[in-house]
Amino acid sequence: MKQYLKMDEWKIIENHFDAENNQISESIFSIGNGYMGQRANFEEQYSGKSLQGSYMAGVYYPDKTRVGWWKNGYPEYFAKVLNSTNWIGIDISIDGEAVDLAKCQVNDFVRILNMKDGYLQRSFTAKLPSGKKIKVDAKRFVSIVQKEIGAIKYSVTPIDFDGVLTISPYLDGNVKNTDSNYDEKFWDEIYSNSAMGEASLTVKTKKLDFYVNSSMKYDIEQSGKKINFNARTKLEKKFVGNVVELKIKRDEDTTIYKYVANVTSRDYKIDELENVGKTILEKAFDKGFEELLNEQAEAWHNKWKESDIVIEGDVSAQQAIRFNIFQLNQTYTGEDDRLNIGPKGFTGEKYGGSTYWDTEAYCLPFYLSTADQKIARQLLIYRYKQLDKAKENAKKLGFTKGALYPMVTMNGEECHNEWEITFEEIHRNGAIAHAIYNYVNYTGDKSYLGQYGLDVLVEISRFWEERVNFSNNKGKYVMLGVTGPNEYENNSNNNWYTNRIAVWTLEYTLQVIDYLKNNEPERYAELHNKLNIKDTEISKWKDIIDNMYYPVEEKLGIYLQQDGYMDKEQILVKDLDPKNLPLNQNWSWDRILRSCFIKQADVLQGLYFLEDRYDTATIKRNFDFYEPRTVHESSLSSCVHSILAAKIGYYEKAYEMYLRTARLDLDNYNNDTEDGCHITSMAGTWMSVVQGFGGMRVRNGKLVLNPFLPGHWNSFSFKVMFRGTLLKIDISKENVVVTNEAEQELTITIYDEDILIPGEETTVIVNKLRN
Ligand code: BGC
């Protein structure tokens, strides 16, 4: 854990340069707009420790798999989000001496991520090895108004000398991925051009043929006035740029405004790329930096209007939750249904930028409640479009029918290669089915079921049908050799969660079939034919629903994580010498597998998803048994525990669990923020506040709230968008104040009572869960 950032409600602030923290800060201060992302690398050259990262969403590389012992069924490649053309580069030198913070004495360093307005800012003074002192101010953003545009304002002021400043803005395609398996560079040059004041570079991936064109244009001001300048052009392999030499005078600033458009063959025809890029760039250039930044700020303010959470009385918590919301909105905007949310978003290379079950299990609720429903719908469409690949995946593993969605994917193909995850962690299929339920339950958009939902549900159900087998011994259906969400157990038989979510999928599929038969008979007839739904399979599904085996521990009245779990030596985490923790860094894998310790919510994940089917006493018994055995070594663990703890009235526990992830990256809690931020777990943190502390659910088409105030806060409020109505819910010790920001009225349930909230009005209810 490392706390070096300053507290502020709207900003992340680093006010001291420490090269040791640089890579962590590069992750934390990342900027993105759902289309591209940029780590907080410096514009000027830097020879210290750094992970250079410029990412274009959906532009990836199938890096050849590296694995010690090949198993049939492994994917041939691991899809990597690519480190693309470095578009931020502006080299600076003074009288021929390069500015490189690793070689200078740095003072007054401040780096700020302005979350309210959506930009990154940095300033410092540097004493160069020659003794000359300069002051630098830099500001940059990637636009959420015009997604292809990145803009930089970079000023240099000599403090104690007159001299010559050389500014070299450039675009550099000589980049590689730090995590490339065979140290390959993934890009070839296709086109390059450099002229006075502008340059353009098109590169293409060596496989899959993604083309990316980056075009730059810039102008320069001295003491606030635009100047005419001469530039030398630079045209090298995969590198284009300009070199400008300017006389500078003590205390007079020189400012370069660099504008870049990044366009890709995912959106435009290859032979149009340079022209499209140029047109978009010219428009941005004509607007100028300040106007672009104003637009950016306004667009961010609008996002905040729909998604902000305000916490009074705890600046650290306030900063953290806004950081999480900011990063989630930087990562996914729902504009493109071919994109999804990588566990690290655009903040690093780890997890390859690929899609995991994290999206359905943890991220969907955030986008459902903080934006128009079409945004969350896009996440579902992504899986719908990949259904054929999921069917191929099931075939590849030897199934005769059905769909198995990959554990890790970019384009629908599996790209993870650990047998216990690739082949066994099949519960992901359940989360994808559950997301359809979650979306329809939240939005009421039942049209989704006939349009897209049933196709996915039927194919997942078919997979479950074939994946279970009837045990003559037990006289029940069983599911053998799986890995549940708790990855600290592999090859288990009858993981309760997996059996449960499989049966739930079958039940829900049958319900949806009934719904469509009764409400959209024509569409159902079409789907019945298209999907070739047979009566025999429907009766088989019913048989599995009625006769599935679930491991239980009768004496304790709990569901058992898997067969044989109680044979393990039962130790609680609190009784472990803390020096063993985290287990995954201190214990052999063998020891972890034999122990009773749980990585993340497993049985409890099921109780969270299917909460309505279990009474509070059951949830409590299972929580009391499993949480003390859980080491929470996945950042996705705490949110589920926090929400369930709140549900069963363990308010302190709910808060403690929330704290574990709220500042996970800001305080580098797991010592791994330098690899990138935990984007998907940030959605979990949001869930802890809204579903945990706010007790928000949707039942029978109604929004339900059961809010309590964590003891450490004076009050908190959150915004939710529910079926076209934007609500603000304010929770203080005394009251729950609901403001309906829409015109239409809405009836919601608060503390089990139905309350009508008229449009544009505020309703005050007494807080019944005073903590
Ligand atoms: C977790 C998985 C998760 C993955 C990516 C793992 O550590 O156990 O549940 O999908 O990280 O976030």
Q: What can you see in these coordinates?
A:
The structure is a single chain. With 771 residues, the protein is an alpha+beta fold. The protein has a domain at 11-305: Distorted Sandwich (Beta-galactosidase, Chain A, domain 5). It contains 20 helices and 32 strands. Strands 1, 8, 9, 10, 11, 13, 14, 15, 16 and 19 form a ten-stranded antiparallel beta sheet that branches. The longest helix is centred in the middle third of the chain and has 24 residues, at 496-519. The radius of gyration is 27 Å and the shape is globular. The mean pLDDT is 97. Beta-D-glucopyranose is lined by residues 343, 351, 356-358, 485, 487, 599-600, 634, 636, 680. InterPro entries: 6-hairpin_glycosidase_sf, 6hp_glycosidase-like_sf, Gal_mutarotase_sf_dom, GH65_N, Glyco_hydro_65_C, Glyco_hydro_65_M, Glyco_hydro_65_N, Malt_Pase/Glycosyl_Hdrlase.
List keywords for this structure.
Beta-galactosidase, Chain A, domain 5, 771 residues, alpha+beta, 20 helices, binds beta-D-glucopyranose, ten-stranded antiparallel β-sheet
